[in-house]
Amino acid sequence: MFEPIFIAQQLLNGLSFGALLFLLASGLTLVFGLMRIVNMAHGAFYMLGGYVGVVVATLTGNLLLAAIAAAAVVAAIAFIVEFGLLRFLRGQELPEVLLTIGVSFVMADICLWIFGGDPHNLPNSAKLQGVMTIGGLSYPWYRILVLGIAVALGIALALLQNRTRIGAIVRAGVDDREMISAMGVNIRWVFTGMFVVGAALAAVGGTIGSGMQSILPGVQNEVLLYALVVIIIGGLGSIAGAAVGSALIGLIDAFAKAWIPDLAYFTIFLPMALVLVIRPTGLFGRKA
Amino acid sequence: MKRSRIVSLALLALILVFGIAFPYLGASNFALSITTTILVAAILASSVNFLVGEGGMASLGHGAIAGASAYGAGWASKQGMDPGMQVLIAFGVTIVVSLVYGLLSMRTSGIYFLMVTLAVGMLIYGLAFRLSSITGGENGIQAVPRGRLFGLFDLTNDLALYFVVLAIVFFGLVAIFRIIHSPFGQVLKAIRDNESRAISLGYRVNRYKLAVFVLSATLAGLAGATKAIVFQLASLTDAHWSMSGEVVLMTLLGGMGTIFGPFVGATVLVAIQNYFAGFGSWVTVIQGVIFVIAVLAFREGIVGVVSRWIKKPL
């Protein structure tokens, strides 16, 4: 139970699950940071992305193609949701959340209708094969790849936010919407763009995640829960917070599942409760 | 007494009279059971509505509170306790659960509050799923016996059950009405309208908020226990957040912050669910679409619109 190899394995399990969580939570937290919307349809975006990804990967055997297709489909739907519905509710917190709940209901049911109730998994042909072996430790390359993708994406998002003009516009939008509008930026389109990007991130997460855990009806709620816990811990709107929160929850989840499986579900809420009591805005969050 | 209050009281009395007369107006057993369903849903919707209307806090965790309470009642019944004891146990569970909710969520507000209630609600769902020795896991607690309430009312009789539920609903409505118009309710209004001012006047805002939350949760727990007895079932679906979403939809349809809104909303939604039951899984899609339309175009809700017409709060 406490052998080094076992521990190393759980460590990798936790980090790779955390990587998947980061793909989910980063989109959710970015959208929240800019638009103050808790997108309850985020889990549904993940699920649809997973289904589309699995279908495309089965046809082509190419993971990259599958991820791109998933991101494109989900981004298109997110655009419709934002442009056609959410835009009319700007700034009204509760109605916005309720609307995304409605969208989530509809999407989940349409997914059930199209893809059925059977679990969908990424076909092996599209997966990175083989296992990494270091001494007595062997670990699937695919999960290492997921970890790598998440790290790369995290760095890219951080650079985008801190080093580019687009990032500057987004940061300005978070701080002061009126001012950035007065500077001649059409903030409405920035919002729409961010919502679409957030959804696309969820879709990529779904495609990649389908290689780690099945996509099936109900998965949208489970991933939404994990993503919410992550961003509550990390602080809403913070990419760094999402990264730290994902790693934390991923690790806690992995070790809890190995050591105290009966309480596995409970353990991810303990850090959340602690954070809420000690620092209600989250580890990296700012005061609302 | 203000005229608006008289209108509300008159409506309250009217509902009671109609409720009592309903079974004797030639209502079929089916109509009676649907009405019971609506009443149970309306209690839960009222609890959410109370929290939004009086506390200014929207919760997505009330389904789970009601669910926990239903499990409490169901578990107690399986231990052979009578309905009175079942309700007591259910209340105990509700108080514990709502304090956990309250303590975790009180330091947050607005959208954060919504998320925390959602997350805690999902935690309860997860616990109900895992602790299958107590909750029956995916099967839930089935065939909850109805028994005799206080040794007096035989709840196996549908008519008696209907009247008991009606009494509970009426009790809930009167309680809400009393609280809203009490000094406590006035303080709540002050907090809702201007929190900083209420703090500067020396009110301990957090305590008031916790009190509203626990009151609202108690009502939700009452709904859950009633539901367990009426449907003889405590199930996972009830504890799921989509149930909380459904309840918020009822309040929204009926009119948030109105006393009678939850009833109208519950009636409409239960009617839709029954009417469209033949469409199978499409019910969720229809519900989702109604959700979207209601949020986009019909924010005041049915009672809200009526209330604006007659220029009186209902």
Observed structural traits:
heterodimer; A: 288 residues; mainly alpha; 73% helix; globular; B: 314 residues; two-stranded antiparallel ribbon; 2 strands; 1% strand
Short précis:
In chain A, 73% of the residues lie in helices and 3% in strands.
List the helices and strands and how they pair.
The complex is a heterodimer of chains A (288) and B (314).
Chain A: H1 4-35, H2 42-60, H3 63-84, H4 93-115, E1 131-134, E2 137-140, H5 141-163, H6 165-175, H7 177-182, H8 187-209, H9 219-234, H10 239-259, H11 264-267, H12 269-278
Antiparallel strand pairs in A: 1-2
Chain B: H1 3-21, H2 29-55, H3 62-78, H4 83-105, H5 110-130, H6 132-135, E1 148-149, E2 153-154, H7 158-180, H8 183-193, H9 195-200, H10 205-231, H11 236-239, H12 241-254, H13 261-275, H14 282-297, H15 301-309
Antiparallel strand pairs in B: 1-2
Helix pairs in contact in B: 1-7, 2-7, 2-10, 2-12, 2-13, 3-4, 3-5, 3-10, 4-5, 4-10, 7-10, 8-10, 12-13, 12-14, 12-15
Detailed description of the structure:
The complex is a heterodimer of chains A (288) and B (314). With 288 residues, chain A is an all-alpha fold. Chain A has a domain at 22-219. Chain A is 73% helix and 3% strand. Chain A has a two-stranded antiparallel ribbon with strand order 1-2. The radius of gyration of chain A is 19 Å and the shape is globular. With 314 residues, chain B is mainly alpha-helical. Chain B has one domain (3-239). Helices cover 75% and strands 1% of the residues of chain B. Chain B has helices spanning 3-21, 29-55, 62-78, 83-105, 110-130, 132-135, 158-180, 183-193, 195-200, 205-231, 236-239, 241-254, 261-275, 282-297, 301-309, and strands at 148-149, 153-154. In chain B, strands 1-2 form a two-stranded antiparallel sheet. In chain B, α3 (62-78) crosses α10 (205-231). The longest helix of chain B is centred in the N-terminal third of the chain and has 27 residues, at 29-55. Chain B is globular and about 50 Å long. The model of chain B has no long low-confidence stretch (mean pLDDT 82). The chains are: A mainly alpha (288), B mainly alpha (314). Chain A binds chain B through residues 36, 38, 85, 88-89, 93-95, 97-99, 101-106, 108-110, 112-113, 221, 225, 228-229, 232, 236, 262, 265-266, 269, 272-273, 276-277, 280, 288, and chain B through 58, 60, 103-105, 107-108, 110-112, 114-116, 118-120, 122-123, 126-127, 129-130, 240-242, 245, 248-249, 252, 281-282, 284-285, 287-292, 295-296, 299.
